[in-house]
Amino acid sequence: MSKILIVDDDPDFVEATRMVLESAGYQVISAANGDEGLRKVREETPDLIVLDVIMKTVLDGLNMSQEIANDPIRSKIPILMVTSIANSDYAALFPTDEQIHIDDFVSKPIAPDDLLQRVARLLEKVRSA
Amino acid sequence: MSEILHIPVDRELSERARWLITLRWLTLTIAAAVVLLANHWLGNVLLAPALWGTLVGIAGYNILFWILFRRLERRASPHSSYVALMHAQVLTDLLALTTLLHFSGGLENPFSLYYVLLVLISSILMTKRASYLYATAATAIWVTLLVLEAIGWLPHYNLVGFRSPTRYQQPGHIIAESFVLGSANFIVAYLSSGIIERLREGEKQLYEANASCELRAAELSRLNARLQELDRTRSLFMRLVTHELRAPVAAIQSYLRLILDGYVPEERLHEIIAKAEQRARDQLELISDLLDLARLQEPKDEKEVEPTDLVAILHDVLDMMQARLQDKGLHLEVSLEPDIPPVAASKEHVKQVWINLISNAIKYTPSGGHITVMVECEGDMVRGAVKDTGIGISPEEQERIFDTFYRTEAAKTMERHGTGLGLAIVKGIMERYKGRVWVESQVGQGSTFYFEFPRA
Question: Looking at the predicted structure, is the pLDDT value of residue B4 above 80?
Answer without folding.
Answer: no
